[in-house]
Amino acid sequence: MPVTGKSSLVFFIGGILRRLFLLISVTCLILLVSCSQKNHIEDLKETIVSLEQDLDSFQQEYKKREQNQLKNLQIVHDSVQAGEGLFQVLNRMGINDEQRRKIVLSIQDSVELSVLKVGQRFYAAKDSAQTVHIFRYEANPATIHLLFLNSESSTFEYKLVSKPLVKKQSVFEGVLESGSTLNGLLFQVGIPGRMVGIVSGVLQCKVAFQQAQPGDRFRILLEESFYQDSIWISGKVLYAEFEGRTVGHHEAFRYEDPDPKSTYNAHYTASGEALIFDGLRYPLDRLHITSSFGSRIHPITGVRASHNGVDYGSPRGAPVYAVAEGTVITSGFDQYSGNKIAIRHRDNSTSWYLHLDKRNVSAGTRVAPRQVIGRVGNTGRSTGPHLHFGFTNSSGKWINPLTKTMIATPKLEGTRLARLQVQVEEIKKELALTEAQEPQKASDSLDVNVRMRVLP
Ligand SMILES: [Zn+2]
Questions:
Q1: CA gap 73, 309 in Å, rounded
Q2: Ligand 1 centre and the CA of 347: distance in Å?
Q3: Could you state, in order of their start, the residue ranges of all structural domains in the chain?
Q4: Which of 88, 165, 289, 350 places its Cα 20 to 30 Å from the Cα of 80?
Q5: Class for domain 166-277+410-454, per CATH?
Q6: Which CATH superfamily is domain 289-403 in?
Q7: What is the CATH number assigned to the segment(s) 74-162?
Q8: What separation in Å is there between the alpha carbon of 309 and the centre of ligand 1?
Q9: Tens digits of per-residue pLDDT, 252-302?
């Protein structure tokens, strides 16, 4: 470390200087005491001169070293913005082409550059010629990547500073109450948002949460790493379970391939069915159902007919979102549906959005989940501003959108399936060990318990 290096150098040279001063003083004293012997005086004078010369050269050497060490480095920093990689950040930090390349080359084996998050910060210590001498990337408070410039070879030497972590497992267990959702409960007991997203995403492949009821039960097993016992560094969801009166009993297990970067690393049912949720989101920010799916008396024609979607009451102009990624196959107007948009999704189902005031996308456009595609309106055969939201399955049959779930990938087979089954048994053992711990209330106001175990 530069600071320690500098202070030990100062200490070392300071010691030598002190000894030299002492030697000169003692010599002067001897000189005074034994001044009667003139030839000795001449000898001693010479000695003093040579000692003073030594002192000068030491002082010069000290100054030179000090300058080298301190070099007047200037610290610059910048952070990742949306859609950027490390290269763009380094560019903004004013690091030249050659050093940019060297930094990326020196760090790419140790840092997964493709998963840099928005806001992650980089520091560089540069001299007045803009040459970077030290480069620092703090992936998290316990993992710091450093590059030091070797001025002779002008290459960077990599050093990882990795502080010891504590690994813990915890089982959260609880029931839904009236008006509570699984997501809401997990957030309230302090589980990091990313892991809450994984739990609900995984379970949503099997569970239509719109039909979950008070009294439905959940249980999840997390494995998390902490720095200094409380700073959250990373975590994974090993197991998630939901048992509902109408939605049934479902379990998800975390599978890990030997290759940590494998796309097979995900959650599966015990029989190997992938639980990778393809992002079915809500079409509106506020969901107020005014008419459900199924048979009803039509408000305008008075005729009993099948209502092939769900009506959400909403003020005119509220944003309407794509419920999943897909391609717009219809964006148009007719006298019944008014302004309408249809999006075909990866599993060949289609979501429909009717009576829109405005349409923001045209046929052929690819849309992302939660992208605004239009605004709520009252066009076509409609008695007031609302969104009619419908879903057709891959064979074009209208289905209840509230029960729609989407699964993107297939089953595990062969050696992967066998490996999953071994891992399922391991997870069950871990679950039992952690469940043997004393339960604690996860929050004063909620009916959620947590059991925690520090891993050896
Ligand atoms: Zn409708």
A1: 65
A2: 24
A3: 74-162, 166-277+410-454, 289-403
A4: 165
A5: alpha beta
A6: Glucose Permease (Domain IIA) (2.70.70.10)
A7: 3.10.450.350
A8: 6
A9: 999 998 877 665 778 999 999 888 765 566 788 777 888 888 877 776 777
The size of the chain, in residues, is 456
Q: How far is the CA of 31 from the centre of ligand 1 (A)?
A: 111
| Ion ligand 1: residue ranges with CB closer than 5 A | 311, 388
Query: How many whole angstroms from 211 Cα to the centroid of ligand 1?
Result: 20
Q: Residue 222 carries which side chain, given as an amino acid letter? A: L
Using alpha carbons, list the distances in angstroms from residue 177 to 41, 215, 248. Answer: 100, 6, 17
Same fold, 74-162 and 166-277+410-454: yes
Q: What is the pLDDT of residues 12-39, one digit of tens each?
A: 555 555 555 555 555 555 555 554 566 7
Is-contact 235 167, C-beta < 8 A? no
pLDDT category of residue 78 using cuts at 50, 70 and 90:
very high
